[in-house]
Design a protein that fits this description.
235 residues; alpha+beta; five-stranded antiparallel beta sheet; 9 helices; 59% helix
């Protein structure tokens, strides 16, 4: 098929393409409306050694994942939930709390998604401060020069809407709908074996069209019969 054939199919079945795109966009809008609204707050903590040498920096980078495990221990999350009166289980907290170590920057990023925009920063700060306290407690058993400290780099920022992203979802649904609509239009065209235009005849029989028989409407013929009947009555 040539490009002109594809354009002809699109012009012929444009309503199917637009209908599928509209249905997909509407579905994405409904899905966004029924999703639980979650607000995200983020805090960052700086991980610094008591002395700077290559050996201790390597240990610091290796231990950052262990710091994450300590902060996300179920017993610690349940304690924070009880302190803030969240009435949330540790499993729920694990699904809505993310801790990302960044060894190259010596940072630990804490992200919290919560339905209440005012509570999300409080949870992020509580988890970060609890982690810093646990690391400080571990440092009591380590020689002073070998200690690794966790300090607040950026307190939890005001929460912003993280989910649902209604505009993004609707746009993605419309684009997906256009693609599906195009595929459906071409599929229907492939299944349709009727000949509608002289170009269809030439394509299927590989012969040049010499002429076409015009369609004759029924209204002119009916009018002619009426004229004949009237003339007979006059004679």
């Amino acid at each position: 098929m040539q490009l002109a054939d594809y354009l002809t199919i699109i012009r012929r079945r444009w309503w199917i393409i637009l209908l599928v795109a509209a249905i997909a966009a509407a579905s994405a809008l409904v899905f966004s409306r029924i999703q639980e609204r979650l607000y995200r707050s983020e805090a960052s903590y700086l991980v610094v050694p008591n002395r700077y040498d290559n050996g201790l920096l390597i240990v610091l980078r290796d231990r950052m994942n262990s710091f994450r495990s300590v902060a996300l221990a179920p017993i610690q999350l349940e304690k924070i939930s009880a302190e803030l009166q969240l009435d949330r289980s540790a499993d729920w907290m694990l699904r809505h709390v993310a801790i990302q170590p960044r060894p190259e920057e010596q940072l630990i990023i804490i992200q919290v998604d919560y339905p209440d925009a005012a509570m999300a920063p409080r949870i992020a700060d509580a988890i970060g401060n609890n982690m810093a306290a646990l690391i400080a407690q571990q440092n009591t058993t380590i020689e002073g020069t070998d200690r690794i400290n966790v300090r607040v780099n950026q307190p939890a920022r005001p929460a912003i809407l993280h989910r649902p992203q209604t505009r993004v979802n609707v746009l993605a649904g419309a684009v997906l709908g256009l693609i599906l609509g195009l595929l459906l239009a071409f599929l229907l065209e492939a299944l349709d074996d009727t000949l509608k235009t002289p170009a269809d005849v030439e394509r299927y029989v590989t012969l040049t069209t010499l002429g076409a028989i015009p369609s004759v409407g029924t209204e002119p013929a009916t009018a002619a019969l009426r004229l004949k009947a009237d003339s007979r009555r006059l004679t």
